[in-house]
Amino acid sequence: MTRAIVFLLALVFMQAAAFAQTPVTWEDLIDPETANFDDPYKALSGLELRSLGTVLRLRQRLSEEDIAAEARPRIESRLAQEEAKLAASGVQTEWLLSQRHSVAKKRAKAALTGNPALDGQEVAITGYAIPVDEPGEDGTASGYLVPEQGMCSHMPAPNPNQMIRYTIEAGNQASYVYEPVLLTGRLTLKTTRQEIVLLDGYVDMLAAFDLQVTGIRGLEDETPDNPASRLWKYFKRGETVKPEAAQ
Fold first, then answer.
1. CATH number reported for the structural domain that contains residue 185 in this entry
2. Which residues form the signal peptide (predicted)?
3. Are residues 86 and 119 in the same domain?
């Protein structure tokens, strides 16, 4: 009898552990191994980066066959000035320019790759919901979760590993664009791409994660109110907030 009770208790604890949700942050979604690479451009100041870009652009212009003869001396003079400024700052111009393609590939991979340690895990994460699809025949709807309000419309879209596509029961869908929510469910590494219409026009949504939502909690009462928040509500459901109320 005692052995049976111990077995049942162990089974209960195992089931509870299986469905326990791990709180995760957006930084947790980034693959630490892929993101850890030597980026020589990080050491440059904004002015140095701008000057380096100018050098590359001017060199490319001088290599073009259709460049006007009268324009060449002016471009060469500007190029010499920019190269001299970089040299005076100790910037290794030639080496940095030779690294640009390699670094670009590493940056792209770091932006796309999600943390494999979270694949298949039950998680809880907060963010701003972007409802997308109308309910399907299976009674589910979908959308995207992003870390900051306004992303993908008035702000650039986040990196793919900072965007989650979610599937949820239609009756539990977020009620307006950029509603602050806490989502729980099973997170998987699954790259998806979809073009949607969002406020400003068409947006390419590239996400590295998929979340099968089992729970949602609105955080509107826990999020500081601001005019932008009221505008998002208006765009999603015009009866909620009048345009003048968001002034």
1. 2.40.50.870
2. 1-20
3. no
Residue 179 has pLDDT above 50, yes or no: yes
User: Residue 225 has which token pair?
Assistant: 């109110």
Average pLDDT, the chain: 84
How far is Cα 166 from Cα 192, in angstroms, rounded to an integer?
A: 11
DSSP one-letter string for 17-85 = HHHPPEE--TGGGB-HHHH----GGGGS-HHHHHHHHHHHHHHHHHT-TT--TTTHHHHHHHHHHHHHH
Answer whether 55's CB lies under 8 Å from 93's CB. yes
Residue 61, token pair as written in the block: 């212009």
What is this structure's pTM? 0.76
Does 52 share its domain with 98? yes
- Statement to judge: residues 147 and 69 lie in one domain: no
CB 145 within 8 A of CB 125: yes
**Is there a single domain that holds both residue 105 and residue 137?**
no
**Dihedral class, residue 51 (left if φ above 0, else alpha if ψ from -120 to 50, else beta):** alpha
Q: What is the pLDDT of residues 107-161, one digit of tens each?
A: 999 999 999 999 999 999 999 999 987 766 788 899 999 999 989 887 889 999 9
CA distance 153 to 44: 30
